[in-house]
Amino acid sequence: MYEQKSRIEDLLVRMQKYAQVINLSSKRKELKILQSESQKSNLWDDQENARKVMQKLSDVESEVSEYDQIVGELNTLKELSLEEGELADSMLSELDNFEKKVEKIEFKSYLSGRFDNKNAIISLHAGQGGTEAMDWTAMLYRMYTRFCESKGWKVTVLEETSGEEAGLKSASFKISGAYAYGYLKNEAGAHRLVRQSPFNADALRQTSFSLVEVLPELTEEDSPDVEIKDEDLDWQFYRAGGHGGQNVNKVSTAVRLTHKPSGIVVTSQTERYQEANRKIALDLLRAKLWAKAEEEQKKTEANLKGDYTPATWGTQIRSYVLHPYKMVKDLRTEVESGNPDAVLDGNLDEFIEAEIKL
User: Fold this and answer.
1) Mean per-residue pLDDT for 46-67?
2) CA-to-CA distance for 187 and 193, rounded, in angstroms?
3) Cβ–Cβ under 8 Å, residues 119 and 176
4) Residue 119: closest CA among 183, 60, 57
5) Number of structural domains in the chain
6) Quick one: which of 1, 148, 215, 345 could link to 121 by a disulfide (CB 3.0–4.6 Å)?
7) Nearest to residue 311, comparing CAs of 198, 215, 180?
């Protein structure tokens, strides 16, 4: 009996600590404000802002209700243990489940970075290797979209360039969901695939690389330190193909934006209207400029310590081997899996959580 009560008390204490880490009281205040905003009659006059309000409301509401539900049910178990002395076997099983729930919710306390709670923008770029590398990039695209589906996150394609024979030369997509950037930011770097080539008649062993970039979705309010001047921008418009319906093939709706001082180029082509693609391109540029500034700051700090490794082609973070044996290995955490098919199907939690906890 004492052990049962002790376990319940321990779980309640852990939940209290979690509430302090995420500043639950401020989230409750934020929830009331968002609920009030969502009920305004003119909310949908600005559809983009309305979508942001409703998404934020859903995220905060989910976070608060998850906490309240776990604590409420733990308190119920506590009362039952006091009344009955011993918990029934079914209740003990519930207690085991609660320990797993608390461990899961505690994991969010690792996601305390400045923009960890933001949506994420992932960009994939095929490395050298022609069709083989482009096919690998398409495989990574599927892996990340499947992972996002398992989390209940929405994936919106921003740009994609198909390979001549197969796969993708590049692709960018936005992931909308609570803590999407926090979960995915450490996926940035080069990903290596080793397999028998399906594009070679002799089925030779082939090594391919694809670069993954991960950025937070930022607004002007999020990054006031990122200055974007109109005179520094070079806009180009062209006809897009693929997503967006027939309209994109008839009108110059696609956007290519060049930031002249930095040389950064971004594109957006999947929306049906040019103005929508302009905004996506501008937001993507803002995120890239923020990332560039962050990288430069890290480089300066790391150089003072004598250690600096940027997230570029030289920084391979994970190997996926399909031949002559099967294994996925993360080179930072040493986490391994002997089931690469499952990993490529989106089962990334073990790898992602291990890196976040480093």
Assistant:
1) 88
2) 15
3) yes
4) 183
5) 3
6) 215
7) 215
